[in-house]
Amino acid sequence: MICGIVIVGLKWVSGDPEVIPYPELLKQGWILTFGTGYGQLVAPFFGVTLGTVVGMMMIKTFVMTTLDTASRLGRFIGTELFGSNGLGQTVMDNRYVSNIVLLVLAGALALTNSWIKIWPIFGSTNQLIAALSLFVVTIWLVGMKKPLRYTLYPGIFMLLTTIAALVILALKFVPKGDYLLGGTSIILLILAVLVVVETISSWRRAPENSQQL
User: Where in the chain are the domains?
Assistant: First the structure.
């Protein structure tokens, strides 16, 4: 969304020799493109030069903090799945080892452009995590005897749309022989079902589940 807003500050075709059009600017790097667009937008307030520098610093900071967060969360998940509490690979309990494994796999995806293949189902994974988060909060509200409608109904909607999207993706990729995306879609479908099962199970174990929706 932010990138879309910043692009508004750029010109697709420019008759001014001092203004580089968007297609040519993009060839010089997306960070410079973002910074230039941001600089054009805030030019009335800070000037183009300062605005461009701030825009470039902003996007670089965003990328670095995102990578840091993704690395930490990936390490936690890897340790939980494969460490002593998961599949028993105690070497994965070491934070340095688990982090190196994660970064090597992520680097392989980036350097081989393999991430492009899994990108179509990225949105579905995000939606599934969102649904899970809403259901977790819902179960917490059950224990707190608070109204559930603010999280339960959005969670159900999010889960249903995710399941529908995954079914469509599976039916799209499997017939084409794209078993990577098709298989991943099916796995995510199974995880979606497990989310429902775990939510219902947790609800039944809650001390009170009769409060008003």
Answer: 2-60, 67-112, 119-205
